[in-house]
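Q: Structure tokens for this one, please.
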Amino acid sequence: MKVDDKDLQDGGMLRQTALLAGVTVDEWRAVAHLLPSFPDHQSLLRHLLRQSACAPTILLCFGDQLLLQYEGVLEWSWSPLHNLRSGQRIRGKNEIVDPSASLSSESLRAIFVKIEALVYKCVHLLLEEQAQSYRQRTEDYEKRLDRLASAKLITPDDEQLAHELYEARCQFAHSLKSVDQIDYLSVPMKDRWGSSGTMRTRKLKRYFLPDAFRFSETLLTLFKPVQAEQLDGQIFKVQLNAALLSDHSSNRSTPSLDNSQPKGN
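A: Here is the predicted structure, written as tokens:
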């Protein structure tokens, strides 16, 4: 299902997930006023994903928001991609990389976790047809990169860049170096974090954040058109409707979504 960008951008994570799962805008408007107030949205979203997800690991990207559910643990992040004053897209920023982030363990971990999840989901959706037996631990990261390259979903340059980023990830995970001393392209990360200096030096040097942004943009281009396939839309509707009816059983005029049961039930 193709969802209009505006519909995804002006609403909470629950609304955006519902639209992605196939709930129409009119259906959402009919039931939105019955939804519990935040933070109960979180519990409802967890329930809906648990019931409708086609795999234990789910990644959903909605521009300013990212949702990651790994083995039943649900996390999400929010960071605006557009300047609040001008409305223009912030250069070098997406759901994975924030060019204004300071060098820290938290920043590195967030980037590496999101990129590895993206690589896994691209393989799972595009090459494995969401096989239930294919989990995040089934295959290592580098093997998945090789498969994406063999299928010509990423270029040889993309694959090389991904391996370079992964070398920094391995140092971060397995060495005793402080984050500023982790090497990226044989130079300490503190000198390779974000582009800086004169225009001449920027042209001559590569930096970690712009490189991570470039590779993640390639992955997001592959992933976003198929991310809705992670959810069984019919089950999502049934479960959302059931949750609302249980909370408002005394209201006979409660509007509902299509409450037909999923096929095979």
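A few notes: Strands lie at 58-61, 65-70, 73-78, 183-184, 187-188. The chain is about 45% helix and 10% strand.
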